[in-house]
Design brief:
Keywords: Calcium, Lipoprotein, Metal-binding, Myristate, Repeat
CATH class of the largest domain: Mainly Alpha
Largest sheet: 2 strands, antiparallel
Distance between the termini: 41 Å
Helix content: 55-70%
GO molecular function: calcium ion binding
Number of strands: 2
CATH architecture of the largest domain: Orthogonal Bundle
Strand content: under 5%
Family: Belongs to the recoverin family.
Radius of gyration: 18 Å
Bound molecules: calcium ion
Strand order of the largest sheet: 1-2
Oligomer: single chain
Organism: Mytilus galloprovincialis (Mediterranean mussel)
InterPro entries: EF-hand-dom_pair, EF_Hand_1_Ca_BS, EF_hand_dom, Recoverin
Amino acid sequence: MGNQMRKKLSKEDCKFLEEHTDFKKPHIMDFYKDFMKMNPDGNMNLDDFKDFLYGFYKDKSTNLAEHYFRAADKNKSGTINFTEFLMFLNHECTSNPEERLNWMFDLFDIDGNGTIERPEMINIYKIALDVNEKKSAGDPTPDEIAEKMFECCDKNKDDKLTKEEFITTFMEDPVLFAIFCRNTDETEDK
Ligand SMILES: [Ca+2]
Ligand SMILES: [Ca+2]
Ligand SMILES: [Ca+2]
């Protein structure tokens, strides 16, 4: 097998990840080994990413996989490198609310223009609620959730959410943040 093709994680990348994620160096090295085993050329494509998510969440979140992939591909290269991959894992499990909100903002900003438009939010909620097995008849619809979110977050009422509007609103209102997370999270134990 192409062992010699396997590059080592550079010191700079490792340091960057230690500083920007909750992971410690031994974990980062373990993740790197696994990542390179799955992706010997150091790049994960969308199909590999879907396979990974499938193993991680079972089949529940593969519907959102393309959006996760888009948001994780920070440099818009069409593939996910190890740094992007670990940042994605970190966003998914970090206890730092601001980090999480940053990630969610990118997830909702489908066209990447720096603001969340209402159809983008409705779109993501539609997909998220489709895979939520715990939903019941009286639950709010994606349109209703978006309405509520825009009412709370859109400070200047221009029908667009900037990253600042989005993050400050939720940082100032933990209850709203909890509701927001409950509607987007597909993990069981949140
Ligand atoms: Ca990339
Ligand atoms: Ca947008
Ligand atoms: Ca606004």
